[in-house]
């Protein structure tokens, strides 16, 4: 029991510290646009390929920010959402999966005043990323695929 309490306390502390370092979606979009302007990407590794992916993702997110339409049934559910939540996405400017999903997550989070949508740079938050990755591996190792 003591080990579980220590683990839970450590995880809670890690998540709280990470939330304090997180930025909102608008600031993330501003950072991505600045990387495009500078010909760079977020994260410690710089390459022509990562800069190119950042350029593509900026265009994708800009388009999705303008064109996403949320279905009325989802709008109603989230407008009535009362629970306080913080949604955190770990990503970098060059991540194609995030470029397609976080504009949608942002749009949905804007429907509920009590959802705080945050973005963390993956490569600056390795400990948090590894915690959730290891959790995912554990869960998936328990699934019988056959």
What's this entry about, in short?
The chain is mainly alpha-helical.
Describe the structure.
This protein is mainly alpha-helical and 146 residues long. The chain has one domain. 63% of the residues lie in helices and 11% in strands. It is built from 6 helices and 3 strands. The protein has a 3-stranded mixed β-sheet with strand order 1-3-2, sandwiched between helices. The protein is globular. The relative contact order is 0.16.
What is the makeup of the main sheet?
3 strands, mixed
Average pLDDT works out at 90
In N-to-C order, the SSE pattern is HEHHHEHEH
- Structurally, the number of domains stands at 1
Helix content class: 55-70%
List strands and helices in order, with pairings:
Layout: H1 2-21, E1 23-24, H2 25-38, H3 48-67, H4 72-79, E2 85-91, H5 96-109, E3 115-121, H6 126-141
Parallel strand pairs: 2-3
Antiparallel strand pairs: 1-3
Properties at a glance:
146 residues; mainly alpha; three-stranded mixed beta sheet; 6 helices; 3 strands
């Amino acid at each position: 029991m003591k080990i579980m309490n220590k683990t839970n306390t450590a995880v809670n502390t890690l998540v709280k510290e990470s939330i304090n370092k997180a930025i909102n979606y608008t600031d993330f979009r501003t950072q991505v646009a600045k990387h495009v302007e500078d010909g760079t990407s977020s994260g410690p590794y710089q390459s022509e390929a990562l800069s190119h992916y950042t350029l593509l993702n900026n265009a994708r997110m800009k388009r999705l920010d303008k064109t996403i339409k949320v279905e009325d049934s989802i709008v109603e559910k989230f407008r009535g959402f009362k629970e306080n939540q913080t949604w955190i996405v770990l990503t970098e400017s060059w991540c194609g999966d995030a470029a397609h999903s976080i504009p949608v997550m942002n749009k949905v989070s804007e429907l509920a005043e009590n959802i705080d949508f945050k973005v963390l740079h993956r490569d600056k938050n390795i400990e948090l990323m590894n915690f959730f990755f290891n959790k995912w591996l554990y869960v998936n190792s328990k699934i019988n695929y056959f």
